Every structure is written in C-alpha cells, then in structure tokens.
Amino acid sequence: MIAAHPLEKKPYNAIKFARVDGNDTPLYTVGKSKKELGAAAALRSAFQQFGGHCFHCKQWMPPERLSHDRTRDHVRAKHNGGRDFLHNLVLACGPCNRSKGGADLISFRPEIGSEYMKALDEHLVKCLKSLGSK
Ligand SMILES: [Zn+2]
C-alpha cells in the first residue's frame, strides 16, 4: 500500500499517514490536527490550510475551499478504475480539470504524467526500503 502522496511539496507534504482502519482504508492527519481523515478529505483539508499548485499548469492557488475552480483531480480517472487513494489524487484548477475531462493524467499531458510516474516510482522504492528495515 502506498501510504503517502508521492509528490513531496505543498500541500501534499502536510498530509501524514496515521493508520489503516478496520476496512483497510488508509487514514491521514493534516498539519497539526489529530483528526483522522480519508484520502480525499485529507487533501481537501490540506489545500484549505496550505494552498497548492495546479498539478497541470502549475498555477498557484492560495488556501481556500475547494470549488468549481479549485478541484481534486484523479491521476487515473475514476471510470478507468482510479480510486480515492492519496497517491491517485492531485489538485487542479477548474480549467485544467475540465479540459482533462475523463482522461488519465498520462494521456492528457504525457510530460507531466511521466514526471508523476517517476515520483511515484521513487516513492515506492522508499516505501519498500522502509519495510525492509523493520
Ligand atoms: Zn491548471
């Protein structure tokens, strides 16, 4: 299981893995809060506290509530089996999210997609190493 977000920048780095609940759902805490949240709620909370960049066009979005123009986007689209796991969620501005539509990240913007896959690979290697050292 990938317990954290592969991107190590704001606001993803504010989200910390807490534990797995009885249904095998990973739960997270955000910032100084001790409240445990599911992945989608954790990203929403992190964005409201810290803001973040649109994953696609890199536009800075200051901390605010998610809306039509400040959205969570699925790396692998929902209709292709993409789920609400933290590593499958990124922030996107409304225009990017709408032009991406139901496409997967990799086919929407191959360059940014491959950057993401590289980060995910590196993250997985770190996860495996930390498992091996326990
Ligand atoms: Zn954008």
Describe the structure.
Helix content is 34%, strand content 19%. 26% of the residues are buried. The longest helix is centred in the last third of the chain and has 23 residues, at 110-132. It has helices at 39-50, 94-100, 105-108, 110-132, and strands at 15-20, 26-30, 52-53, 60-61, 70-74, 89-93. The radius of gyration is 14 Å and the shape is globular. By secondary structure, it is of the alpha+beta class. It starts with 14 loop residues before the first strand and ends with a helix. Strands 1-2 form a two-stranded antiparallel sheet. A two-stranded antiparallel ribbon has the order 3-4. Strands 5-6 form a two-stranded antiparallel ribbon. The protein has one domain (12-132). It binds zinc ion (ZN). Zinc ion binds at residues 54, 56-57, 59, 92-93, 95-96.
What topology emerges from the helices and strands here?
Blueprint: E1 15-20, E2 26-30, H1 39-50, E3 52-53, E4 60-61, E5 70-74, E6 89-93, H2 94-100, H3 105-108, H4 110-132
Bound molecules: zinc ion (ZN).
Residues 54, 56-57, 59, 92-93, 95-96 line the site of zinc ion.
